[in-house]
Amino acid sequence: MSSGCPPQSPAVAKSEVAIEGECPLLAATFAYWDNILGPRVRHIWVPKGDQLMFLSDGEVTFLANHTLNGEILRSAECGAVDVKFFVLAEKGVIIVSLIFDGELKGDKNTCALSIILPQTELAFYLPLHTICVERLKHVIRKGRIWMQKGYNIISVLSLEIVPIMELLASMKTHSVPEDIDIKDTVLNDDDIGDSCHEDFLHKAISSHLQTCGCSIVVGSNPEKVNKIVRTLCLFLTPAERKCSRLCKADSSFKYDTGLFVQGLLKDSTGSFVLPFRQVLYSPYPTTHIDVDINTVKQMPPCHEHTYNQRRYMRSELSTLWKTDSEEDIPPDTVIHTDETFTPDLNIFQDVMHKDTLVKSFIDEVFMLKPGLSLRSTYLAQFLLLLHRKALTLLKYIEDETQKGKKPFRSLRNLKTDLDLTVEGDLNIVLAFAEKLRAGLHSFVFGKPFYTSMQERDVLMSF
Amino acid sequence: MIGSPDVVAFTKEDEYGQTNPDPWALPEEFSVPLYPLADSNPWAKTSYAKFTKDFILISEFSEQVGPQPLLTIPDDPKVCGTFDLNYFSLRIMSVDYQASFVGHPPGSGYPRLSFVEDSRVVLGDSKEGAFAYVHHLTLYDLEARGFVRPFCMAYVSADERKIMLQFQELSLRFSQASECLKAGNRRAFAKELQRKLRDLEYTHSVLQREEGLQREAGPQCMYSAHAVEKANELANVEKSIYEHRDLLRQISSYHCRPRRDPHAVTCQKCMTECLNECEELLDKYAKLANPFGYTDKGGKGEEGRGQIDDEGGEEEVEEDEDEGVKRRPSYTPQLIKAKSAKCFDKRLKTLQELCDETFYEATVELLKETERSFRGDLCYLHTRRLDKALRRRQRVTNFLFEEDLGDDDEDEVGTLRPFCAVNHAVDNYTFLNPPPIVLGPEPLELDSLEPPDPLDLASETSHTHDSELGLGESHLESSPSDQTLETQESSEETKGSFSSDKSGVGPAEKQQSLASVRSEPPDPDSDLTPDADHNTDLERESSSEEMETTAGDDEGDNGGDQTPVSLLEVVSELEGSREDDCERETDGACELESDLLVPIDTACCMSQDGFLYEASAPEADPHLGQSSHHQPSETLVVNQEPQALLPLQDDYAVGSPCSESPAAGLELPVGLLGDAVSRISVEDGSDCTMSASTGSDRAASPLGYGEVVTLRQRKKAGQGALRFVRQYPFAMQALWCLLSGRTLVVLGADEGRVRRLVAALALFVPGPGKCGERVQAWLSCPFTLTDLQRWKLIGLQRVASPVGSSMLYSLSRYSRYISILDADQKTLRCPPYRGQLLANIADHRTYIRRGSTYFLHVQSTLCRLAAKAFLFTFTHHLHLPVSSTEGPEVVEGRRRCFLQEQLGLGEEDSQILLYLSQLITQQYLRPATGSSAAAPCFSFNYTTSVLYKI
């Protein structure tokens, strides 16, 4: 604890986390509203090493307490996790707080898990906000169970706080820039097939777009991996690019849930182990691209992915609920199973659906002379077309269903009317639309899918 | 095989509907829902909010009643519905965000003003479904506790994601509003201090007089209790004077303090003005506040130096004071009673009273604009922004089917105000830290930093927002009628010249009129900021007359024996001038060459003959086109990168009134594509064109009516287009005519019906012009051949009169070049179309329900067409001979092969792409040639027209 501030009572526990590189996160805190003493800070995590800005423990405590101000009025439903986001210019910090209720010493308390960053990192942090919040929300779900059982929540929270520190540190050095020079991508090749096989490129981009722009690129050569990462990022919005990461030249980053595109380096044995759980927890299905062997695999579409994800989450939480001892925190890598749910480990499958949109784009873009801005312009036209098609599709469904009040039953008409009869084209446009209107896949395909899955599960249980 | 036990199994309660809960099962409150609401209805995420749409709430933490809502924008109770504003105010104001010391700091004799930075918080009430961006700020009030009044402005929405994704834009706009309020508040606070000091001075003088009287009345060595009390009172007043003077000094030093908020947006002019006022007051009261000499000057104050006064020249001081007295408002100083300083039962000032009125009004206006700009569904806001960002990267083709980037109404509201709330010019702004992009490459902020229009700069001095708005509105109101009038006048003028044109217009005349246009080039700053837009309407308006009378050199191609008589007439009429031009070209070509040569790609193997010239002299323009006609085998292609020319063409306005001038006439050799197809390129805006089509009821354009066509108008037209497609089975043929450059005449007796049809079909006119100049919505007089070149879509009145018969004559005369859609008989006469490219947007069996959806569909289809045309235009190897031995036929064959085999297009579909490509080429080369608008080539087809009926 730093000097100059009155000692906290009881003393605030503090963990120093060793992070490679410069971590933009100043501290993370867990605070709760004590029904007698008011807001109290229970634990502080700080990255070890040099930081852009120094906050004393007293200041951290002050800020952490601050996040609970006004929460005496909280009237959220049980189990809800609310997010508060502060930009305190007076203190020069931004604070992200997740407010939730939990049981401490038999009392129901309002708690806050917060991360604190310098205000100067606002632009850096904002695109990553959703990723951090979603990951923290899930660890809070686990933490609430732990609190309910009377166990120490800190050990559970640490499971995600540390990776988030690592994520932010890695993004600080290796995030994809907002503006990508087409010269650093495959699209600058003189001819199609110069850098990679034509069919591979087509398949990679097509699948990448079908999985909402979410891809992992693995390989042994970092330059090759990064070239494909940048190429795929050309098809993302600038904000999404800021949520993408290049691979590190010397050693590989760990897979991080929630990033759009990430480059990962294989180890010396030529393999890369993907954590099943983290990949499944990604908000969108993922395309797996191996640049060494030119393979492209993809996860099932959004509605199936979301369904699998939720079932896995429920299973994981259920397993935690049944844990008898505080020491038995199930590690993240363990595949959670129970009698009702066995995850399908074969989540990456071949790209089944061919498209015409990407195919013609790839064929045509290489006809334009490289080195000029012709290809960038053509790419912009292609992206504009996709965005507009997605919006048209959304509007079509909106009209048909009276904004979701009626079920959507005219997919065939939609395909004909909007010229999306080729399955791959439909998948791409639907993926764009999904990003604009979350839950669209489930709305369009969900019900029959759930029904069939339920029937299958029931049949399998006999 | 499934037996009966299996069937029974389906009736078993599974985990989705268990009747006997497992004691070990995870309670739902600790789990995640398997089927969240978003799955069953992605539109219902925000449905449980008690308010209908987003709004802005201004709340105050009142020291008397606690948090209370003050104002909502929009100020309509329906917006908030049953949402409890009191409770929500309590929630958002209960964040103790400042935690800075306010009041008397230890060791300081005087109270300190606390200059706290604004705080921004996003929070929500998940139960109520309400989320808010909350901007906390502090205003100063002399009568408030600690002199501060905490306020907050909140943007309340049911969509949390919308707030977070647009956090930086919200932050920027609210910072702007906050700075405006604070600037007004500092001014008001200084005035309040001024009044207070005057009261204190007056009180001091009264007390001093009383104390003197008592001292004189009492014994010399003794003071009565009353006298002591008076002396204490006097001392208190003196202390209070020093304190208030110190407050004045503090508020004057506001700007000197280091800003800790990197995201604050300050207007330097507001800051400086306020500072000057404060300093003026400070100077004055540093002297006036000398309590000991107030009465000596008869209540006017005097130059006696106080203890902390700065020494200055006496004369100067006198002058200052005189000025101060002269300017002093009619305020009568009041006696301040003892112990009245801490009076908490007073009525607190309202927000209006706390701020200078101008600033308050400006802030409210700014917030209203903010509310408007963030209104609507996130998905549409997001896409619109992405759309705009992407369109900015493809300016070379935007003119074909896209509305103008800077002038769209909806974009306007999405654009940040370029001025501070009280309309100081943008260059006064200081972005301590320009906001980075959140949703996309945000052009809005960049736009806002563009220099304002000169007219806006002129209005800067007025400082009144109303006046500026009034100005803008008056432009808006007057412009359509004015323009119509001008158009009519100019048309009348040119009508006269048409008769002379029939007998042959001299080239000198043409040059003269050409020169008159050239002498007043269009405003290069047409990429407008919202407010500047109103002003450019003026420019547009004023320039429209010139544009309408623009004359140009015609050029054409002799169609050979097959060329119709009328065409030959026109061609022969123009022959003379062209020959002259040709001579001039041969003379001047060498001189021009070095300057006009467009930087080309050296890797390109195009022959020197095919180089493109940047014509700086207008005379040079036609010859280039001319040469292309004389040597049709020469392929003029674009072989330079589009971006290289962007700085030049950045502000182009396709076919806008201010850009109607002769074109280069550079064309792709489409004539070679088929034997039956030939083409003539006639200069746009030639005298004869104008005069012939003059009608008394002529409208400028079907959509914009002389003003910029907005996205909203186009969306509206989408409904008409959908109706047209549903109603007419031959809609595809009509669309093909428009897209392939064949003029479509909509004939009908009912003006409303014709206008509606034209408005709907105008969506499909490539390069309609910024204000829809290529479309004539309603014409009640015969048209000429050159009209057909100028207008690609004409609404023609059917009348049963001599005029009507001449109109019918003109229709039959030019039937070879036009397609006729008879709105009354519901027929279409045009060449047959057998392509597939348009099948999807002209299917009368479409299930698309709404016009807006159909518009989106059309938009994406046209976007694809534009992309293909771009590809065709800029694929160099298609248009260039690979070797010197390669003849034009080979090149032509390659182009044909590309269209047919690569793009899979048939004959008619190819014509669409060729026409679009031709327009792109002209548009692209236009800035290089120095002319401002490219006239589309006039194409005609010898294919027999077919009559389609319902």
UniProtKB/TrEMBL annotation, chain A:
The protein's name: C9orf72-SMCR8 complex subunit
Lineage: superkingdom: Eukaryota
Stored Pfam families: C9orf72-like
A single cellular component GO annotation: autophagosome
GO MF, one annotated term: guanyl-nucleotide exchange factor activity
Signal peptide: none
GO biological process: autophagy; central nervous system projection neuron axonogenesis; endocytosis; swimming; swimming behavior; thigmotaxis
Automatic annotation (TrEMBL), chain B:
Full protein name: Guanine nucleotide exchange protein smcr8a isoform X1
InterPro entries the UniProt entry points to: FLCN/SMCR8_DENN (IPR037521), Folliculin/SMCR8_longin (IPR037520)
Compositional bias segments (type: Basic and acidic residues): 297-308, 531-543
Superkingdom, natural source: Eukaryota
One BP term from GO: autophagy
MF GO annotations: GTPase activator activity; guanyl-nucleotide exchange factor activity
Region (Disordered): 296-330, 442-564
Subcellular location field: Cytoplasm
Comp. bias intervals (Acidic residues): 309-323, 544-558
Signal peptide (residue range): none
Family in the record: Belongs to the SMCR8 family.
Keyword terms: Autophagy, Cytoplasm, Guanine-nucleotide releasing factor
GO cellular component terms attached to this protein's record: cytoplasm; guanyl-nucleotide exchange factor complex
Domain annotation UDENN FLCN/SMCR8-type: ranges: 46-921
